[in-house]
Write the structure tokens for this entry.
Amino acid sequence: MSTPREVFQQLVDGTVGKKWEQLPDLFAEDVVIFHPLSTGPEARIEGREKVREHFARMAGFDADLRIGDIVVYETTDPEVVVCESTMRATFGGKEVSQPGIRVMRVRDGLIVSSRDYGNRQGG
């Protein structure tokens, strides 16, 4: 079974590799993803099927994705990791970067919750 750190790395690898159809398999059926800094419909995603829909929309974007500046902090709770990273994407020749922090709970090798804090810059 994968550790929370390994699951985070699988999420990064799948995102950069644009494995949109495989990524939902990293999430529990009843996962809750919350983006506290967002106000749109993506602010709260509940359930693996909504995650699948989210990644299907991502598949529609033609962008060069990169994720760097990765630091993973393990916590005293063995299910929880805190992950810092910067996602960079190029859309039509313009680079956009989004530094962020994710607080992710992984149980039995699946993401059961995630709070994602990001700040879009550029573009």
The longest strand covers residues 94-107. The chain has two helices and seven strands.
